[in-house]
Amino acid sequence: MKHLVVFLSAGLLLAAGFSGCQTGAGTPPQAAGEGEMHTTAAPTVDLETKPASFPANEDLILLPMPRSLAFLEGPPVKADAAAPVVAVDAAAVPHAQGYLLEVGEGAAPKVTAHDAAGAFYARQTLKQLARQYPAGYLPRMRIEDWPDFPNRGVMLDVARDKVPTMDTLRMLADLFAEMKYNQIQLYTEHTFAYQGHETVWKDASPMTPEDIRAFDAYCRERFIELVPNQNSFGHMGRWLEHPEYAHLAEKPGSGDLCPVDPGSVELLRGMYAGLLPNFTSGQVNVGCDETWSLGKGRSKAAVDAQGVGPVYLSFLKEIHKIVSGHGKTMQFWGDIIMLHPELIPELPRPIIAMEWGYEADHPFADHGKKFAASGIPFYVVPGTSAWNSLLGRTDNALANLRNAAVNGLANGAIGFLTTDWGDNGHWQTLPVSLGPFAYGAAVSWCQAANLDLPLAKALDRQVFMDPAGKMGQAALDLGNAHTKTGVVIGNNTVYYALLLNALGGSPAKGPAKNLTVASAEAAQAMLRDALARVQDSAMARPDADLVKREFALNADTALLALDLGRERILAGNVSTAGLPAGVKAKLADRLRDIIARHRAVWMERNRPGGLRESAGRMESLLALLER
What we know:
- By secondary structure, the protein is an alpha/beta fold.
- The chain has three domains: 4-145, Chitobiase, domain 2 (2-Layer Sandwich), CATH 3.30.379; 151-445, TIM Barrel (Alpha-Beta Barrel); 480-626, no CATH class.
- It contains 20 helices and 16 strands.
- The radius of gyration is 25 Å and the shape is globular.
- The relative contact order is 0.11.
């Protein structure tokens, strides 16, 4: 290879039109300005439409952007991206999961990889290159690449309330593998078919042992580790609500297991005996977050004598014994132990703390330093900000992901897990999370090359497959429209306040108090503009029509929420029930249509379990409007 004409490395990408490549704090990716999840067989998109026309080097976009990319002198060459010559040589490529990709004279690209994973990631890069060039051509180039974080994952909430179909899970595994994620967790409370516990999961359309084993194998073929994730202390309400298990609760109505009841440990022992053998992963996430009733019920005497922290830690150690007996390394959510940092050194080993937080300013830096000082390995765990939002919270999500990457890397985190929760009915559709999934993949792979990634452009080229260049920015703008209302609610949006959480009283005094008629209409204008661009896109994805319908459903629901708030203000800041009958009737008609569409769209990607509960939240509002 010779005659370098453009060299793009972690310090020089900006000079060639690629944003990113900073070693410290930079500006977050811009979400203002100008798509069925794609699989490994996604169609080639010829952006210039002419078979012999090639994109300019500076127009190339990869997801993630590589650590070092050099274009070589000369025109693109005839090369088969699907048939590289591959050599595994750890001495030549010293970084785990790393690869060297060279395209020059000759019919085959050359890949030298540290290991099999590196060779696989080189193939994903070739796939994305081929997507941007006429069939059979590739640019002359040299790429050297490896990840910042050895563990880069996505956690999907399959407990509240969506359990994806196997087709959806396989499609997501393909997408995540191309983004170079190497871990998936399926957050579970009651949606695994535990033998002998049918009462808990019989209406949930759960993942079966056969499902898990099949998906585990599918993931392994794509260098993805499927890590079991079963909450084991808090968030056990789906078990404890049944008479057969209620006696194990900390107190009546609590979702926390009682840590001083031996039956709690025995329940978990049986659960893990049924769950863990289905996974080949050497890890398990046992949850144990948000145990808010601890010490307020049957463990009060123990907490009074020992303290909340020691009682929590004692139960954590019991769980550790169980999973260690299965040969698994335990992951656990770090929020409760962080309230008692003096106990961090007493955590059982081996163990991995999962430092989670979902707002832009979460203290990843401070908390990471505490785990690092104790010698406890930890992941940083940001999120998509899609839950409780309908359309996402774009600016918050990108800042949260960036914060986690920067401070996780600075403090030696061994992993980065992008979470996608489903609180309060999981009303958001899957495409809402695609932008944050993509940015999380990018900054966890190579922070220096991706902090300032042109995300909308990357989404158009590599996710939405939209040669019109409209979908990426439209999706990001839909996620920012709520900010036009002036209502900022942590872990939530104004839409959920108006549709679910603040139906009574005056809107001028509740969480939506900053909403005005003018600000509601400004948000609606932004929603309509972005939705029009979604409909005008030219996605080449097999599920393009579904993606459009999913965004339309969530946008129409948000528009309804804003109309509901606007009408309450115009009627004199009344409660939802206090609206004039004619207004309620019109809103009810729109809501009936939305509920019907919600049910239909749900079944396109998910199993039926959970749909009744999810739609039921909307139906409660409908009943109020029908009175």
